[in-house]
UniProtKB/TrEMBL annotation:
SUPFAM superfamilies given in the database record: alpha-D-mannose-specific plant lectins
N-terminal signal peptide: 1-17
Pfam family, one: B_lectin
Alphabetical UniProt keywords: Disulfide bond, Glycoprotein, Signal
Species the sequence originates in: Hibiscus sabdariffa
Protein name: Bulb-type lectin domain-containing protein
Length: 382
């Protein structure tokens, strides 16, 4: 079942015939901005039964009321006195009834001659020069600060020059949009890949990029509907996707329980059609089979040892690495692409997360070494 965070969130609102606000203008609680084609709406809302007020963006044309972004996630307005405004330097701010600033944006770029804040049909809320529509010259944009929803046109990734990290973070609960304990982000170590984390712990990984999609899963459903993009150089790394048809609404949602749902809006059914979840494939669960093992959805059991390794029992995958191989001059053919022995007798172990290389020329000391002659004829110490 799809979690829809905000069904009965809103008080009666007055929609302004605007998608932009300029210095000297404001949006009060009860008023909203609407994007040019009516795809998204921006205003104040209360999630669930909460009385706290937040400035957010939600779908208007599809799935009315489903929130995709929240500005003041960690600092709510206690009543309906909230006001959004923009100053002549292009800085957005939310003030409460006592004129205290609850939240404000920031920008490292010079202010435009005439700054405006505009809600785009993509769901992006941008601060820019009124007469300059170059998307690369915005002063500030909400897409740089994603919450629990990953929309077409957004990027997840890291700028290695500035250290800026764009990632999803779950809500704390259905009634509290503050950042929760789950995050969905790019792990840049070794072969970069998308990972779902609970605090520092990796729960799920999507595999590395093969030039078309992430290898941890099969060719994505609706692949022809979207254009996927993965970019990596010494300065920046990011992943994003765009809809080939702007009338199609799609999203990733990281819910408060830590589940990722990929869905597309079904206009005929008036509902989200979920076509991918993070727990749909057990082999995508990080370290599901333990160390030195591979996982496949086509076999039973799904786990098996890599060549050159044995497991200690049929019920556990607490594997030991091979520390020494007798007939090391005979290369082992490995189809997984992760473990191989070259003709010189060096065992190379590649891990998709950190690309570690482990050489048998420098054996590791085992706590309780065990000698075993394998059926392959290899005499091993493990």
């Amino acid at each position: 079942m799809v979690l829809v965070l905000c069904w009965f969130l809103f008080f009666t609102t007055r929609t302004l015939a605007l998608s932009t606000i300029s210095p000297g203008q404001s949006i009060k609680d009860g008023e909203t901005l609407v994007s040019a084609s009516g795809n998204f709406e921006l205003g104040f809302f209360s999630p669930g039964n909460s009385k706290s007020r937040y400035l957010g963006i939600w779908y208007k044309k599809a799935s009315t009321g489903t929130v995709v972004w929240v500005a003041n996630r960690e600092a709510s307005v206690s009543d309906a006195s909230g006001v959004l405004s923009i100053n002549d330097k292009g800085v957005l701010s939310i003030m409460n009834g006592t004129k205290g600033i609850v939240w404000s944006s920031n920008t490292s770029r010079n202010a435009a001659e005439e700054s405006v804040a505009q809600l785009l049909d993509s769901g992006n809320f941008v601060v820019k020069d009124r007469i300059d529509n170059d998307p690369e010259k915005v002063l500030w944009q909400s897409f740089d600060y994603p919450c629990d929803t990953f929309l077409p046109g957004m990027k997840i990734g890291i700028n290695f020059v500035t250290g800026f990290d764009r990632h999803l973070s779950s809500w704390k609960s259905m009634e509290d949009p503050a950042p929760g304990i789950y995050s969905f982000r790019i792990d840049p170590r070794g072969f970069p890949q998308l990972v779902l984390k609970k605090g520092p712990e990796i729960l799920f990984r999507a595999g590395s990029w093969n030039g078309v999609y992430f290898t941890g899963k099969s060719v994505p459903k609706y692949y022809t509907v979207y254009r996927y993009e993965f970019f990596s150089n010494p300065n920046e790394i990011y992943y994003g996707y765009k809809a080939r048809n702007s009338t199609i609404f799609s999203r990733y949602l990281l819910d408060p329980s830590g589940q990722i749902q990929r869905s597309i809006w079904n206009e005929r059914k008036k509902d989200w059609e979920v076509f991918l979840t993070s727990d749909a494939d057990q082999c995508l669960i990080y370290a599901y089979c333990g160390s030195y093992a591979s996982c496949t959805t086509e076999g039973s059991p799904p786990c098996k040892c890599l060549e050159g390794f044995v497991h200690r029992s049929a019920s556990t995958w607490n594997l030991r690495p091979v520390l020494w191989i007798a007939n090391r001059n005979k290369p082992i053919t490995d189809t997984s692409g992760r473990l191989t022995i070259d003709g010189g007798g060096i065992l190379i172990l590649l891990d998709g997360r950190n690309s570690s290389i482990w050489s048998l020329m420098v054996p590791r000391k085992a706590e309780a070494p065990v000698e075993q002659l394998l059926d392959s004829g290899n005499y091993v110490l493990k």
